[in-house]
From TrEMBL:
This is succinate dehydrogenase. GO terms for biological process: anaerobic respiration. Residues 52-457 form the FAD-dependent oxidoreductase 2 FAD-binding domain. The lineage of its organism: Bacteria, Bacillati, Actinomycetota, Actinomycetes, Pseudonocardiales. It catalyses: a quinone + succinate = fumarate + a quinol. Its EC number is 1.3.5.1.
């Protein structure tokens, strides 16, 4: 243990290196094909005897549960929402990437692979990203067959648009509700299997513990959020598709229920947590309007196709946007990055917006905003054409702000949106706990230090429809011993959940759960947000353990465990955020470079771009939990680049 300012915090220990032994070598174009051929198969009769638990019903979890049941497995599907349709994937508005090259504008699987590796600032695995690019073309066919109403051109062909980090139009979309339509496709496939008896659905159930027997994941302990009943559910394998951890910042674009508990419980049971400091700040969000807010609203990145981002040229200019002539406007993204303009990747656009606001040129009541202006697009295309593309987004913005974006520019500002970090998995999507598979945003695998827009939907559906159903069989075919509910490990997991719930209810302090969460969020945004410094991270690492102790001494959780109790739900989730936050700051402190969404002020180029240190930090940081208060162990998985040469990213 070390200390700064007299407050102890946990150092870390460097452990043995980590390797992805499931990834094949050889030509990258054939690695996935060769891996699929090399896996062991489970015959159909045996599949019907095997049970798989899937936690989460978003694009990754819903597609995985439906596909696994279609293959013949017995699937139990869990979500804390009242319906699988309520998963947060519904909020991914803009589109889904695929290398179909319908536009004939030069796209290809290799170009999507290259753009994704570059967009992630050369901190992702080449094998995983190439597989994702390959599968992208199959995803579109799958979704069209399901009836997903993708936008179409006049002649009936599927339409595409551009997104950040690409110079081609590869993003398929369904107006401004792509996530919703894709989720409905996965949902109807899931409901078909529920009706057929292949999936047993557990809505309003929250996973509170992972059951590990003889070193293997064998089930979960879940609480019925309506009745309060807590019980164990056993299976031959467990799949986590529980999303990201952006709500550690309190204010984010995530739904209020999004949390890290499923992943964190698995981490405490032996699953390594990889790259937790890699969080994405989305540049296109409605600015904060006051302390009353509990979440932020995302405006789709697709808006940057036709909207132009600008601020006044002079600091302190408070004129209405319509009163500022063209010559006195700074279209700063177009000026700084002429090759990509308003479609630079999210991390770059976010930092550029922060910089102009820090210089006193921000707009709106707080000065923390920039304009996203559609006047040129409306003049060029006509209002009906703009409405056809973005109408529901414009309506949402007007309902929230009271301003009509057809008449005045939108105001936007960066906000926490997505987490590239997550549980470490190998090429088969299996974590360091055998039998525990992690898919979608809950794992770390495909995006590196920054996710390109429209790639989250691509990864979730690739994992759920195409990757996991092929790889999980390899694990199951090797044999899994039966386990019963009276096994000591099962009873211990149940007892741990009961004790934790009892402790939260018994403290009876004088501070609300939200007050702790809000303070933690401020700490994380100030010191581990868009820009990090060693000094700020040390301050956070001083305060977070103190705040965690205060939580367990002073939190007030009213009600009981034997009924619906949303305060109890939130308390458990915030308790896990308080542990995760320390690891995030420690990871950010140890990574003394800037890359993607992780921007250390001490490591930047002369023109204020991220400066990587490839000779020191070209690795995945996978953290092992060693006990509360004990030093976590850092395992490094070296990244090797054979097909893309790491270089200073340039979008100019």
């Amino acid at each position: 243990m070390s200390s700064r300012s007299g407050v102890p915090y946990t150092d870390f220990v460097v452990g043995s290196p980590l390797a992805d032994t499931a990834a094949p070598d050889g030509p990258i174009e054939t690695r996935w094909e060769r891996r699929r051929f090399g896996v062991k198969l489970v015959n159909p009769a045996n599949k019907r005897k095997m049970k798989i638990i899937v936690v989460g019903t978003g694009l990754a979890g819903g597609s995985a549960a439906a596909t696994l049941a279609e293959l013949g497995y017995q699937v139990s599907s869990f979500c804390y929402q009242d319906s699988p349709r309520r998963a947060h994937s519904i909020a991914a508005q803009g589109g889904i990437n695929a290398a179909k090259n319908y536009r004939g504008d030069g796209d290809s699987i290799h170009r999507l692979f290259y753009d994704t590796v570059k967009g992630g600032d050369f901190r992702s695995r080449e094998s995983n990203v190439h597989r994702l690019a390959e599968i992208s073309v199959q995803i579109i066919d799958q979704c069209v067959a399901q009836g997903v109403p993708f936008a179409r051109e006049y002649g009936g062909l599927l339409d595409t648009r551009s997104f950040g980090g690409a110079q081609v139009s590869r993003t398929f979309y369904a107006r401004g509700q792509t996530g919703q339509q894709l989720l409905l496709g996965a949902y109807q496939a899931l409901e078909r299997q529920i009706d057929a008896g292949g999936v047993t659905m557990y809505p309003r159930h929250e996973m509170l513990e992972l059951i590990v027997v003889d070193g293997r994941a064998r089930g979960i302990v879940a609480r019925d959020l309506v009745t309060g009943e807590t019980r164990s559910h056993l299976a031959d394998a467990v799949v986590l598709a529980s999303g990201g951890y952006g709500n550690v910042f309190y204010l984010s674009t995530n739904a209020k229920g999004c949390n890290v508990t499923a992943s964190w419980r698995a981490h405490r049971k032996g699953a390594y947590f990889a790259n937790p400091c890699y969080t994405q700040i989305h540049p296109t969000c409605i600015p904060v309007s006051g302390d009353h807010q509990s979440k932020l609203t995302l405006m789709s990145e697709s808006l940057r196709n036709d909207g132009r981002v600008w601020v006044p040229q002079k600091a302190g200019d408070t004129r209405a946007p319509g009163d500022i002539p063209e010559a006195e406007r700074d279209y700063f993204l177009e000026r700084q990055y002429p090759a990509f303009g308003n479609l630079v990747p999210r991390d770059i656009a976010s930092r550029a917006a922060k910089n102009v606001c820090d210089a006193g040129r921000g707009v709106g009541p707080t000065g923390l905003g920039v304009y996203l202006d559609f006047a040129d697009a409306i003049a060029r295309l006509g209002r009906p054409a703009v409405a056809a593309k973005y109408g529901n987004l414009f309506q949402m913005y007007q309902r929230i702000t009271g301003e009509d974006p057809y008449e005045v520019p939108m105001r936007i500002f960066p906000a926490v949106h997505y987490t590239m970090g997550g549980l470490w998995v190998d090429y088969d999507l299996q974590s360091t706990v055998p039998g525990l598979f992690v898919i979608g945003e809950a794992n770390f695998s495909d995006h590196g230090a920054n996710r390109l827009g429209a790639s989250a939907l691509m990864q979730g559906l690739a994992d759920g429809y195409f990757v996991l159903p092929n790889t999980i069989g390899d694990y199951l075919a090797r044999g899994v011993e039966p386990v019963t509910a009276d096994a000591p490990e099962v009873r211990e997991a149940e007892a741990a959940v009961a004790a934790r719930v009892e402790k939260l209810l018994s403290i009876d302090g004088d501070r609300t759960v939200d007050s702790f969460h809000r303070e933690l969020g401020h700490l994380m945004w100030d010191h581990c947000g868009m820009e990090r410094t060693a000094e700020g991270l040390h301050k956070a690492l001083d305060r977070i353990p103190e705040l965690r102790r205060e939580f367990w001494q002073s939190v007030k959780v009213p009600g009981s465990a034997a009924t619906l109790n949303q305060s109890l739900e939130k308390a458990g989730r915030v308790a896990d955020f308080l542990e995760l936050a320390e690891l995030m700051c420690l990871d950010a402190l140890h990574r003394e470079e800037s890359c993607g969404g992780h921007f250390r002020a001490e490591s930047q180029t002369e023109d204020h771009e991220a400066a990587r240190k490839d000779d020191e930090f070209s690795y995945v940081a996978a953290w092992e939990f060693t006990g509360q208060g004990s030093a976590p162990v850092l395992h490094k998985e070296d990244l090797h680049f054979e097909y893309v040469t790491p270089s200073q990213r340039s979008y100019k």
